[in-house]
Amino acid sequence: MKEMDESAKRLAVTFDSNVYSLMAIKKAAYKALRAFSADITMQGELIHCQLTFSSPVSEEEAGRLVEDFKKEVLDQDLRERLQSETEAVRNVILAHAFSKTKLVNDEPLSRD
Amino acid sequence: MLKLHGQLPIVNASRGAPYLVTVTTHDQLPPDQKRTRALLMKPRFDPTGFKTILVKKNESPRERTEGDVFELSADYEYLDEGDILRLDPVAGSMRCLYRRNSIHNTILLTEQCNHYCLMCSQPPKDVDDSWLMDEAMELIGLIPPETEALGFSGGEPTLRGDRFIQLLQLTKDRLPRTAIDVLSNGRAFKDLTFAAKCAGVKHPDLLIGIPIYSDDPVRHDYVVQSRGAFDETIEGILNLKAVNQRVEIRVVIHRQTVDRLVQTCEFLARNLLFVDHVALMGLEITGFTRPNLDLLWVDPYDYRDVLSESVKLLNAYGMTASIYNHQLCTLNSDVRGNYRKSISDWKNEYLDVCAPCTKRDECGGFFSSSKLYKHSAHIKAFP
Amino acid sequence: MSPFQGIEQYEARTEDYQLLPFRFILLDHDRYVLTNLAGEYLIAARKTVLDLLQHRLSRTDPAYCDLRARHFLMDRSSSIAPTLLSLKVRTRYHRLAEFTGLHLFVVTLRCEHACPYCQVSRQSEDTLRYDMSTETASAALDLVFRSPSTSIKIEIQGGEPLLNFGLIQLIVREAEARNERFGKKLAFVIATNLALINEEILTFCRDHSIVISTSLDGPKDLHNASRPRPGGDSYERTIAGIRLARQFLGSDQVSALMTTTEASLSRVRGIIDEYVAQGFSGIFLRPLSPYGFAIKTRSYRAYDTERWLDFYKQGVDYIVELNRQGLDFAEYYASTILKKMLTSEDPGYVDLMSPAGIGIGAVVYNYDGSVYASDESRMLAEMGKEQFKLGHVLMHRYEEIFSSPNLLDPLEESFAYSAPMCHDCAFEPYCGADPVFHYALYGDYLGRKPESAFCQRNMETFRYLIQKMESDLFVKQLFTKWANR
Description:
The complex is a heterotrimer of chains A (112), B (383) and C (485). Chain A has three helices and four strands; from the N terminus they run E-E-H-E-E-H-H. Chain A is of the alpha+beta class and 112 residues long. Chain A has a single domain, classed as Gyrase A, domain 2. In chain A, helix 1 (22-31) crosses helix 2. Chain B is α/β, with parallel strands linked by helices and 383 residues long. Chain C has 485 residues and is α/β, with parallel strands linked by helices. Chain C folds into three domains: 9-93, no CATH class; 99-402, TIM Barrel (Alpha-Beta Barrel); 412-471, no CATH class. Helix content of chain C is 40%, strand content 14%. Chain C is built from 18 helices and 15 strands. In chain C, helix 6 links the parallel strand 8 (185-191) and strand 9 (210-215). The mean pLDDT of chain C is 92.
């Protein structure tokens, strides 16, 4: 959900913290540094992002940048979940790839 | 078709147990050799000292000898130097167990089997026939070491467990230059220890031929009439390859297997690419095939395109594949490279219509049983 | 009563079944592609897929038997599927542990051509400081023989490598000498434009079983237009060079690669005809990579994925027809993908590997001693982005180079199975992670696949190859042959 500020230099976007992780939003905000800076606050269960554009933008351009920001948040959120879900498989395969180079330790995957 | 066993009229015999004896056409032999030989009698031959004398009708030796004398009818004219027979001096029965002139001899190790294939050519008998293994061991001792190839068959040879391994070891020791092929359903090898024992023999030229009749486990189990057969056979094959044994996959083509023949070959290419050979075999109209003919019969001419597609696939994947027990005129020309002129030489025959065929020498012809009972309706001489 | 039981007695006692791991994606209209854990595919109608997923698929459905036999579902009649699947998966990944097999040596940056798409950013012919030194070559060989791979392929590149032929001879002799100790399977390739080839060079190649790989962009006008050279005779020299090389080395030791440019896109049949006319047994219809001069001179933007796909499909269609008419001629990009679709073998093609082929499949030793994770990594560096530089042959040891975060980070982050969309994609077994491409275009090792030209191109190519195979037995058999080359 977004709201346009009068000066057309700021927009607000809200994310449901039950759906998106804070880390994902921060990563997406970081990627968009050149386009805008983001003030991120928690409001109950909602993550509120106040976006301030670095240079004047048309409403259309602002809309496009925000849409891209939302896509990036989704992307980063999914990446995070999948990375952790597939960590074991990924480690096994990468370890197998490096197995004959003597660059990996022969430690079991599980930790105490 | 050669008559490999039958009843021989006894002219004169001791009342001992059945024994193995090697045929000879020479009467001038050292005494200790004569004691283990069966002389194919000829006029003016001296039969004294031979264990056995084989005479034609009305040609018994004039003097009585100590050896057993049996009469051979014209059916046994093929017998020659070096053939090995089992003779029963009480019952008069004879079985030719080994023929020196044959390129391939097969030794029956047991008639017991844990399968009951719809097309079994050696129907199982649930009797204690462990004496067959004893005999096989004795036979190995008599077979000449220049023998190029020998087969072990059954029933299911691996039911003999450790004795089977012992036989392999003995064969390796006595016949180190002889290639051995074993026909087995492979299930016993699902026990890795057993597979390892087989590998432990370190036989220089051993091939284990294992049937897989379909990529569909249900269909395979149905053809061999045993639930769980597919899984255990595959496990056995994987274990054998894990211990570096050579494995051949055998597929008999008939009405119950032809519909998925291409898929079966695809299964082999995707799952068992590492096997050493694939044998695609025609149906032999003997044993259980005859009572099950309705279920099994399909004219090979009618499946020639399916066979071509299957062979092309195996060839494309670099698998070595051979077609056995088919007639050339029932096949497309594109499979000629994989065609083998097979059918054991004691079984093969030709039809009258084959007389002028220009490819007769390259063609394996028919099983005698096929000629008698059922063969393709499309047999035609090549011009 | 017959002692033989009917087939129903061998079916599972109950009708329930288990789903084995698989993914699915729309193929066209109503059909889906399903791929199992081992990357084997099967085509099914939408209704079949829905029934399958909802455990409603009947045993009498014609698809049921195939789904069971090909390891998409498992019922109580057989439980061997997991064993076979894991064997196939192990086979697919087996080659990974061989590690770096392809070692590229950029022996000089000098070149006498001026091709606009050249990623090599050629320097003019007479500047010797763009040659690799013997010290660098020797240090690079130290690294080569640290690879655990049982087969090593050393590919000599440039610029135009024959301008530094002396060093090539040194590298080959030195590699062979060192290999006495290691006993690896050693192979050499020289990637050259053949303009400078002569009998002395070819004799050396013959004596050391060196394979020649050259560039042939298409018919004369196309080739000369995209490969300008003082004298404007690149095509003539290439053809003459190919003839001479074949004479000395045999036809199977001389191969050619084309580069796709804007001008190529409408000429695919002519390009293929040229390869046929020159007696090649196949062609690699390459995508254009967005590196080096290609981007600088805007030639990358001159075409897009759609247009390349048209070019590619037309090319493969044409080659299939040529085969139908009896000519034995293959398309090598399709062959690479088909190997992944139809076998459990890994073609080791750097751009279609996950984990990515950087470092694991190939490594580049540049003329100046810099080590890069792949050919494309070096091209990116020529554009000023050293993201994938792993170190320097004279300053870093093997351990430092292959543990460099510039290698490990992109390997980890671009891992396809961990990537959104790739994780669920039925085509993932055929595809790859290309962190260099995505970094070059999108600034990130992974990119957003829905927006990625790499993804779009690959998905469309996979669909196209599968559709062709499924609709024509001749093509299925031809493709099976190609897959097993």
